[in-house]
Specification:
The complex is a heterodimer of chains A (about 625) and B (about 375). Chain A is mainly alpha-helical. In chain A, strand 1 and strand 2 form a beta hairpin. The longest helix of chain A is centred in the N-terminal third of the chain and has 37 residues. Chain A is globular, with a radius of gyration of 25 Å. In chain A, about 65% of the residues are buried. Chain B has about 375 residues and is an alpha+beta fold. The chains are: A mainly alpha (about 625), B alpha+beta (about 375).
Chain lengths: ~625, ~375
């Protein structure tokens, strides 16, 4: 290692580092902050804000589905003329609600809220870095997201309503303002908002990748990275490759809408008028959209799986089973995520041969996913499990991941997809495997790292109640929904009374709605716990979960730069829990093998020789000589 | 069905009671420190909850299946539909096994290996043999599913047989229209979207410079097919995406403006037979839309009537041709037909007053779709 070269560079930086220690003004500290921890909290609060709106929307349209024609005039103060004079929900607004629920939950809550919060918060803390590679870009990333949020929020109040073509905004419906009122200004704002959102997630992604590659502390090799970081890293790569494709799809749609091009439009007669557009293809949009859309599922899910790995190992007091297999399966899922997009398009008239290829590739994903599930279960086996709320949500995530995953195998089979495509079976499937599972990851993450974020503990018992209500509630909503799907009920229907084949199951739909209301109500337990504990919670100890990873070696509330003094070196992997021979049931990553002769495995004893050298090198740490 | 709600409601109630009782224990433990024998409050209780949830969940799963299964997969009326149904239940059985196995293990382990004072977890970081086994098993199962699925898929998507009845179906906001080749040449004439004109009763844009289109008939609320004869659907849309969904036939294919698609199937149970089989005299096959297309997406119902050849022929001969409807609405439309074909076209001119009913239907459909926007 070029120790000398690095430390000269470091010396050159010492002076400008000192400037950072000056007290920052309010704007710099809380609003336009470049500190990754503050930015993470900004993402989290914005995500929670959107989650409340997004889930509330789903409750409104669930009311219509469970009780067709229900009198919603009590919502008139909020929804205004979207409630008709007879008190029913306007069918146009029903579509808008469905669309906005999807967009908000997928992009604003589960992409920005989940990955934005925890990638920002945990990457520097768990790899041993002072901050992100570029604090400024990181800040810019959040503010682009905030801007995109504002634009989307404004669209909710338009006279013609927000976008309403489903969250997938397939043209021509989304391209033609005359096709639906949601395709007027609402769609323009949707596309603008998404363009800003994509910029935000690219800025974030570049930062995550650069930080993980370049700013790891000494000794933190890739094979010693916590699985959380592996997951965030791979997620960022996925986003970096796929989001630009969504951008191009949106851009071409903007051209079609405003500049008279025909990328997606061909041979259309609408409202008594034959449009001049020829030669475009709506299917092209679907290919571009799902090239992002499918990886997006994993962009949402992988961070949750990463955090779960960490939390399950910590609270089972056991090393994660098959660390390398976990990384391999993450990589496998990430790679496959790019070659399965057309399984959303089996019945679009795409060449059937292409369909069979995509069926084959899709079903392969079951293999790495199964490996992950089995590894989690084996991690629990003969553990000494502590049911913190984070642990409960992590176990719940594994259950949902499996329960929602198995139905994916049915939908990925093109022959079976013919009947089930665009029915409630699909809705049930992806809400469990991607929506609820990722949301559980979000909750698990908050419960687990709350002490590090705010220096206070959340109330355990309330967290546990929140878990059981949510876990059971989610199953009660989405398990019966499969039945509705098997019966052939199509999605995005305002009501089912038009058809004989969809006349059954009115009670079941009612039940699903009641379960949804119950589950929504349960989230207020969390909100109370979250905000109350932020100010009034018990002060957190240094390492409340007795965990191995680096973030717990920082002060209770880490300041700017995270560690006081030198960044610790890392000597071992993060999963030395309950190691035979060790006095405690955990050995933090910062403890060298030379200090634990009683528990070292043979190949670890061999590493002791290298540890002294490791302790002396200084890769990136500007503070080493300063303190 | 009411029982389903009843029992699921009961599950709810039990859960609510559990939650309330736990709430009380929270109130007690709010100001108390964590008990000495538990690493976090209520550890033991949460361990037990896994088993309780598992048992209740299993009961709920099995019970709700039996309570709801009558509504599953409406009776299939096409051979390929029965094939995919079989495949569905076969896959579903495999999936149910893995779903139950994994969840049972997960919940059981969570309960069994909950924290006990003095216990130490087993340091067990990997086992390559085990991992190899559980990589291989899903891989083999997937191979079986891919293979069976692939064969069914290629058969379903193969070219329609030569003796198929060719029917065109077109989606629009908000309804379906079907078109038949007609009694004389039984051939669908050309169309051009620029010729679409609701005002002259040519909503499908038939091109009357092609004489094959003269005898074409169309309908806005019914599709008639012959029992046992393959049906080859030629699918298109004239405004936005739609998707043809015939639940009982296991048919689904998007209707795309500018890109005709197709699907073929063989209806092998007539409407009357299905009515008898299901014991529902008012039963009808239905065609729905499954690609969101705007405000009226949920109301694009069209009836599908499966009947024997004789009744089909009778129905077909009763339908007025599109051309006659056009000429009745706008007699000078004849000037837009090439001169050499005018004489032939005039044969369809409104000497036939029978056209009235269709005209009225199409007219209302067009008006209502404009109003629905």
């Amino acid at each position: 290692m070029s120790v000398v070269a690095t430390s000269t560079i470091v010396d050159a930086h010492v002076e400008e580092v000192h400037e950072h220690h000056e007290e920052q003004n309010f704007w710099k500290k809380y609003v336009f902050s470049e500190d990754h921890k503050t930015i993470a909290k900004q993402y989290m609060i914005t995500g929670i804000f959107w989650a409340v709106i997004g889930i509330a929307m789903s409750v409104v349209f669930r009311l219509q589905l469970g009780f067709p024609g229900i009198n919603l005039s009590w919502l008139k103060p909020v929804l205004g003329r979207w409630i008709t004079e007879t008190g029913t929900l306007d069918p146009n607004f029903y579509l808008a609600l469905v669309t906005m629920h999807g967009t908000i939950m997928v992009f604003f809550v589960l992409t920005a809220g989940l990955s934005g919060t925890f990638s920002n918060f945990l990457i520097p803390l768990q790899i041993g870095a002072r901050d992100m590679a570029s604090g400024f870009l990181n800040m810019l990333g959040f503010w682009f997201f905030a801007l995109s949020s504002v634009v989307m929020f404004i669209s909710l109040f338009l006279h013609t309503g927000p976008a309403a073509g489903g969250w997938v905004i397939y043209p021509p419906l989304s391209a033609l303002p005359q096709a639906h009122m949601g395709s007027e200004m609402g769609m323009t704002l949707w596309l603008s908002s998404m363009a800003l959102f994509i910029i935000s997630s690219l800025l974030g992604g570049i930062n995550y990748i650069t930080t993980v590659i370049n700013l790891r502390t000494r000794g933190m090799t890739f094979s010693r990275l916590p699985l959380t970081i592996w997951a965030f890293f791979i997620t960022a790569v996925l986003g970096l490759i796929s989001f630009p494709v969504l951008f191009s799809a949106a851009l071409l749609l903007i051209f079609d809408r405003h500049f008279g091009t025909s990328f997606y439009l061909s041979e259309i007669y609408i409202n008594g008028e034959a449009l001049p557009n020829m030669g475009g293809s709506p299917i092209l949009f679907q290919h571009l959209f799902w090239f992002l859309g499918h990886p997006e599922v994993y962009i949402v899910l992988l961070p949750a799986l990463g955090m779960t790995s960490e939390i399950i190992a910590t609270n089972a007091r056991k090393p994660i089973f098959g660390y390398r297999a976990m990384i391999a399966s993450l990589l496998g899922i990430a790679f496959l995520a790019f070659v399965v997009w057309a399984h959303h398009m089996f019945v679009t008239g795409m060449n059937p041969f292409l369909g069979s290829i995509f069926m084959f590739l899709t079903l392969i994903i079951a293999v790495p996913s199964a490996v992950k599930a089995f590894n989690y279960i084996t991690t629990l086996w003969r553990g000494n499990i502590i049911f913190t709320p984070a642990m409960l949500f992590s176990i719940g995530l594994v259950s949902l991941f499996v329960s929602g995953g198995v139905t994916g195998i049915i939908l990925g089979n093109s022959a079976l997809d013919i009947q089930l495509h665009d029915t409630y079976f699909v809705v049930a499937h992806f809400h469990i495997v991607m929506g609820a599972a990722s949301a559980f990851g979000f909750f698990a993450g908050i419960y687990h790292w709350f002490p590090k974020m705010f220096g206070r503990m959340m109330n355990n018992s309330m967290g546990q109640i929140h878990f059981w209500a949510t876990f059971i509630g989610v199953y009660l909503i989405f398990y019966p929904m499969h039945y509705i799907g098997i019966a052939g009920f199509p999605r995005r229907y305002y009501q089912f009374t038009t058809y004989d084949f969809a006349k059954s199951y009115t009670n079941l739909n009612m039940f699903v709605t009641i379960a949804a209301i119950f589950t929504f109500a349960a989230q207020f337990i969390f909100l109370w716990n979250f905000f109350y504990s932020m100010f009034k919670g018990k002060t957190a100890p240094l390492n409340p979960w007795r965990s191995n990873t680096l973030e717990w070696t920082t002060p209770v509330v880490p300041g700017h730069g995270n560690w006081v003094g030198e960044i610790p070196a890392v000597y071992r992997w993060p999963y030395d829990y309950s190691k035979p021979g060790a006095a405690e049931d955990f050995i933090p990553q910062t403890v060298p093998y030379s200090a634990t002769p009683e528990s070292n495995l043979p190949h670890e004893t061999a590493l002791i020789a290298e540890e002294k050298e490791l302790g002396e090198i200084n890769l990136n740490d500007q503070f080493r000589t300063a303190h | 069905m009411i029982y389903l709600v009843g029992i699921l409601g009961l599950v709810f109630l039990v859960m609510a009671i559990v939650v309330i009782s736990r709430m009380q224990s929270v109130m007690k433990s709010v100001n108390k420190d964590v008990q000495n024998d538990e690493p976090v409050a209520n550890n033991k209780l949460n361990g037990t909850m896994w088993i309780v949830t598992l048992v209740l969940g299993l009961v709920g799963t099995i019970w709700s299946y039996y309570a709801a299964k009558d509504g599953f997969l409406p009776e299939a009326s096409s051979p390929h539909g029965r094939r995919t149904d079989e495949l569905f239940w076969f896959s579903m059985a495999l999936m149910m096994i893995s779903f139950l196995a994994v969840n049972v293990l997960l919940f059981y382990f969570s309960w069994k290996y909950q924290y006990k004072k003095g216990n130490k977890a087993t340091f067990y970081p990997d086992n390559h043999k085990l991992e190899l086994i559980w990589t291989a098993i899903p891989a083999v199962v997937m191979a079986v599913l891919v293979f069976t699925g692939y064969r069914a898929w290629t058969d379903i998507m193969s070219e329609a047989p030569n003796n198929s009845q060719v029917i065109e179906i077109m989606g629009k906001q908000f309804g379906w229209m079907v078109r038949y080749g007609g009694t004389e040449d039984n051939k669908l004439g050309n169309y051009n979207y620029k010729l679409i004109d609701d005002n002259v009763q040519n909503p499908m844009g038939l091109d009357f410079s092609d004489e094959a289109s003269f005898d074409d008939i169309s309908h806005v609320s019914e599709m008639h097919v012959i029992k046992g004869r393959p049906v080859s659907l030629k699918i298109r849309a004239r405004d936005v995406l739609h998707s043809v969904f015939i639940p009982h036939m296991r048919v689904k294919m998007d209707a795309v403006p500018g890109m005709p698609t197709k699907f073929w199937f063989t209806p092998d149970k007539s409407t009357d037979e299905m009515r008898a089989e299901l014991g529902k005299p008012e039963f009808d096959y239905e065609i729905a839309c499954t690609e969101v297309c705007g405000r009226g997406h949920f109301s694009m119902r069209m009836r599908l009537i499966v009947e024997d050849e004789a009744s089909f022929k009778k129905w077909q001969s009763e339908q007025p041709t599109v051309l006659s409807a056009v000429l009745q609405t706008k007699p000078d439309y004849i000037s837009r037909i090439p001169e050499n074909l005018r004489a032939k076209a005039m044969k369809y001119a409104p000497a036939a007053p029978a056209a009235d009913s269709t005209v009225a239907q199409t007219g209302t459909a067009a008006a209502s779709s404009a109003a629905l926007r």
